[in-house]
Structure formats: C-alpha cells, structure tokens
Amino acid sequence: MLDIQLLRTDPGGTAERLARRGFLLDIAGFEILETKRKDLQTRTQELQARRNALSRQIGNAKSRGEDANSFMAEVSGLGDELARNAAELEGIQSELQQILLQMPNLPHHSVPEGNSETDNREVRRWGTLPSFDFPVNDHVSIGENLGLLDFATAAKLTGSRFSLMTGGLARLHRALAQFMLDVQTQEHGYTEAYVPYLVNAESLRGTGQLPKFENDSFKIYHQKDEPGEGVPESAKAAQGELHAGGGSSAREEDWYLIPTSEVPLTNTVRDQIIALEALPVKLTAHTPCFRSEAGSYGRDTRGMIRQHQFDKVELVQIVHPQSSYDVLEELAGHAEKILQKLELPYRVMLLCTADMGFSAAKTYDIEVWLPAQNAYREISSCSNCEAFQARRMQARFRNEKGKTELLHTLNGSGLAVGRTLVAILENFQNADGSISIPRVLQPYMGGMDRLAQGQKTNSNRPISHSRESFIMQGKSDSKPIHKSGKASALESEVREAIAHGNNVQQAVRDLTVKALSTRPDFESLRHILTAVMQGVREGAQQRMQNNSGETHAVLESIRDAVAGLDTALAQFAEASKLALEEAAGRAQKFSSEELAHLRSELESIEHLFFEVVQASASSAQQAVSETLRDFVTHAKRNGTAVGSQLEDTLTAFNREISSTGRVGLETGVRLTHAITELMRQVATGMLSGVAERVKSGRKPSDRRS
Q1: Quick one: angle between helices 622-638 and 522-546, nearest 10?
Q2: Which helix (H) or strand (E) holds 398?
Q3: CA-CA distance, 491 to 537, in Å (whole number)?
C-alpha cells in the first residue's frame, strides 16, 4: 500500500508514476474526499473545543449554585453532531482506504517503461542450449510415453489443469523439492518453515492479493467454532469468542488456499516490531500453491506450465530498507544457483512497468529454456516490494536511532518445482524416450541416472553404473553421510573442539579427514563441510556468550578451524593423486570419459570450500561473520592448501587422460577403491605428514592470486 501522505503532498507526481504501470489515478475524486475529510476533522476539532469550554462553564455554574441546564442542553446537541461527524468521517476514511488498496506499487526508477512483456529487458544468459539429433518431444508426450504422467485421470478426479504423476516421475518431483530446500537452507542461509496452506483474508490483504485478485483465489467458507487449542484465554476473551459459562461462539469466516507460501511467510512479521539485530529475516518453504486463474486466456492449456495446483519452493527476505536492492540481486542469484546446479540454460529478464506484479517495485524473471517450445519460459520471479507490503501489514523495525520504521519485503521462487521438472524432461530427453537425471539429483534418487519406460524405481540401488557420481563412491551399499546421523555427530564434535579451544586446527583437520574416509558422494561432501562449519559457528558463538572476554581468542580459533578444514581437503586431493599414480604404476589404463568426470569433480572442491564458508558467514553473528569473510578474502588472494594440491592432482589426471586407452568400468571402480583406502590411511595417521608437505613445500599459483 502506498503512503497516503505521498498522495496528499504530490498527487500529480504519484499519478504520473502510477500511469507508467497502466493505473489511472482519479485525482479529482481523491481530492474531493480529502476536502471532505479535512472539513469534517476541522469541524470536529471546533465542536470538541466548544464542548470542553461548555463543560468548564457547567462546572463553574454548579460551583456557584447557578442553573447550568442551558449549557448542558448545548453539550448534548454537540454530542449528537460529533457522533454524526465520526460516522461520516469513518465512511470517508474507508473510501480512502479502498482507493489505496486498489493501487499497485510505484515502480523503481531503474524499471524500464513498457506496455507488455515484449518490452522486458534481458539482463544475462547462462548455459548452452542443447542440440538433438532426433525429433524433440514436449514434456506431455515424454511423460505419457513413459507411463508416468496422467492428465486424464487427474481430470476425472478434479477437472482440467491438474496432473497426476506416478513412479519415477513422482519421485523426481519430490527429489527436486528436497534438493532446492537443501541448497537454500545449507548454502544460502534460509530458515525452512512449514506453513498453513489455508490463510485468512487479512493475510492476503497484507501481501496484496486482496482485494484485487479475489477472483483468482480458491475461497473456503467454514464455521469458526473456537476457541482453539493453544490460544491464551486472554486472547479468546479479547476476540469475543468466550461465553460467560466458558463455551464458544460460532461464526462464519473466509479461508483461502495459498497462492504461494509468500503469503504465510511474509505475514509472520505482521503487526510486529522486529529488532534491528534480527535482520535480515530469511525464510523458505516448500508448499503446494493454488490459483484459479484462467490460464492467460487460453495460453498453456496443454501440460504442466500453468495449472490450478503446483508446487514451489518460496524464498522470502525481510530486510532493512537500505539493503533491499542489494538483497534483490542476492535473492535472484539464489534462484539462479538451482538452475546452474541442474545444468539448465536460462536467461534473466528485468520486467517492464506493465509486466510487474501488483506489489512489486522491481522484478527479475528467470526464464528456463524449453526445447519443445523453442523458447525461454518463466520459472522464477524475484521481486522487491519495498515498504508496500509492510505498510499493509504494519511490519516495522527499530532503526539505528531506536525509532520504528517500515521494513522492506522481498520474495522469489527458488524454484517452481513443476516447471523445473518440465525443463528437465525436455532438456535431458534421449532418443529412446528415456530421461537422463541431472547429476546433482542422482543422490536424491538412490543413485538412479535415468527414467525409462517400464522401470522399477523402488530400490535404493543405482540403476546404472555408467559413471560414478563422485570419486569416493564405490560400493552400492555405501550410505551418504547426510542420510545418517554422522553429519550431526561431526557438527557436535567440531562444536566441542571450538568451545574448549585446544589444538583447534588439528582437531578440525582430523575430524574432517575421518569423515572423508567414509566414501561420501559429492552431495554428502557438501554436508560434511557444512556440518564442520556449523559446528565452528555454533561453538564460537557459544564460547563468546559464556565468556565475553575471550572474543579475540575465539576469532583465532575460527581461523584455525577453517585452516584445518582446508588442510583436510588438501590431504584428500593428495590421496586422490597417489591413488591414481599407484593404479597407473600397475599398468592400469583408464577411460578418458571416467577420468574427465573425476577431474571435473575434483575441480569443484575448492569452489565448494569457499561456498560453504561464505554461507556460514552469512548466518553467523557479526564478529564471527567478519572473521569468516576475511578468511575467504585472504585465501582467494593468497591461495589455499587444497587449491595448491589440486593443481598437482589435476596435472596428474590430465597426464593420464592424454595417454589413456578405452577400458571398462572396472578400472574406475579400482581407482575409487584405491582412493578410499588411502583416505583410510590418512584417517589413521599413516599419511599424517601430507598436509604439512603441502603447506610448506608448495605455493599457490597465480590463477588464484
């Protein structure tokens, strides 16, 4: 909602900015109501002043024993007029409120002016468009041919614009949602929430869906028979829901199915004053979403692009006004990261004034490539709403001067699950009708690397062993660390090491090496690093709370801990190189494809190291956060132990790739087992000198300098 003072002080300028969005402000009508409001308020003040004066006269007359009836009669008449004025003023204020509720947000100055989506401005592109040597099918044909996507049964159950997924496709849909949540919570610092799927009208008004989009909502009427469980008696009484005898009253209330979880997530701060140090608030949730829109007037009537029910992983940030546009760029990057990890090509569009959502001041749309349509289609919309929603919700914070100020709210998809599934089906389709599963999703699919017709998907064993998902993955019965209690145990051990402050670097190194010796896949490696950094952060914060005088020592422990993590990864890289050289020395040749894959995974390790440390910094207290960020800055400038060792290891892999012949998978498995064995040696101390050799005997290359 716009600030009414802006309309009062600059109605012409406001109308001009609204016109950029296609909204015509009735300035004359607004000014008529404003004149009536002012006149009524002025008259009300005069009447109140006259009544106060008469009350004093009545008191004086009675104290002198004089007749005060005439004064009292006039006061009574004034009371009647004041009551009529109050009722009329309330009506005018309600009309003004309705005008404000119908107005969209004002566009930011950087938003391009336009009349339709054709005027949106492309910001950047990522990825290479796939090429196919066979006729491309759309996601509907692919899903139906696999026997995993059924629109007919869904229509029988409910109606048009619903879908039914089964088997491997349903599992892939679930895997996508879990993968998205893991990335946003573990790498980007969001707090996961489980929210109601039904909300009241006030929640929809707070985020701008009501009254404008009433017809696009699914409304549910119910008899409110409260008080409900867990509601304080004082609150029940205040709501007028308790009878004298302790019973409850029943009344009708509207509920609405959520259009996205933006509504409940953003409304968590409604009618609240947030402490400055609690900002930013970063929330995410995976929910179904419900919209009764007609489908863009006939567009996308086929398939899963536009449905009445779909799933999304929503991102919401509630922030200080000064940082909101930096946060918008950050939030869009969080959504883009999902597509990058899935290796799906996309572009980012800056929406023009005519194409933005009602509550948005600036919006980026992320559009994924769909081969069957030969076009980019929206998969995420990331918006800064500035104070528009906060004003509706009365969501505030105490600023640096202790005064209350409206928050800024932002939201975006991270991502729309169904549309991401559509993109995978079309971009990863094969000539035989099967679908290759993106590498990052394979751990969530029990090792499966493709969906095929007639395939059974209940087993957790890999369906295909055409390539390893990570260099440490060997036996099919090995369990990723994030699916056991190992990650939480590792976090606890690191936390204790930090809390006590004894030999922190060595302790973190040894604990990490021990975890690495359990043959993790690549996603589990992320969980190992994340668990270590969570332990570091929490142990440091706990230690500072217990003894504020140890701040300097704690920060030194943090630097030692991250250095220990770096050294452990260097040992891992060294073990990989030794295993390769040992196996090659036994006259074993490797598949170039296998080696290239292993090399690409190794290349990601240093980047993953920086990524996890930075993610930990974003969710830590200020002193801890600054220390972690300083470490990353220094390490990127001067190099890391793992980066230095990786250069030697990758050189060895490149050398082997250049001379390799074609062999079977068994060689790759033997290499994997050799690396595993060496890591066990590292964990038991047999290679304890590796890290020291790395740190003292090698310098980082100019590539990282």
Answers
A1: 130
A2: strand 396-398
A3: 10
Q: Are the CB atoms for 500 and 555 separated by under 8 Å?
A: no
Measured between alpha carbons, how far is 507 from 558 in angstroms, rounded to an integer? 12
Nearest to 433 by CA among 164, 145, 130, 140: 145
The DSSP call for residue 443 is: G
Nearest to residue 438, comparing CAs of 426, 449, 452? 449
Q: What is the DSSP letter of 242?
A: B
φ, ψ (nearest 5 deg) of residue 98:
-65, -35
Segment holding 89, helix H or strand E: helix 69-102
Give residue 672's pLDDT band: very low, low, confident or very high (50, 70, 90): low
Q: Compute CA 604 distance to the chain's CA centroid, rounded to the nearest angstrom.
A: 23
Count of beta carbons in the 10 Å neighbourhood of residue 699? 9
CATH 1.10.287.40 in the chain is located at 26-102
Peptide bond into 371 cis (omega under 30): no
CB proximity list for 491: less than 8 A, separation 6 or greater: 531, 532, 534, 535, 538
The 10s digit of each residue's pLDDT in 126-182 is 999 999 999 999 999 999 999 999 999 999 999 999 999 999 999 999 999 999 999
Nearest one of 286, 328, 331, 397 to 189, comparing CA atoms: 331
* Strand ranges of the sheet holding 198-200, from the earlier edge strand across to the other edge: 198-200, 250-257, 219-225
CATH of 119-197+259-427, one of 2.40.50.100, 1.10.10.10, 3.30.930.10, 3.90.1150.200: 3.30.930.10
Question: Could you tell me the CATH superfamily of domain 26-102?
Answer: Serine-tRNA synthetase, tRNA binding domain (1.10.287.40)
Task: Give per-residue pLDDT as tens, 462-506.
Answer: 333 333 333 333 333 333 333 345 556 888 888 888 888 878 888
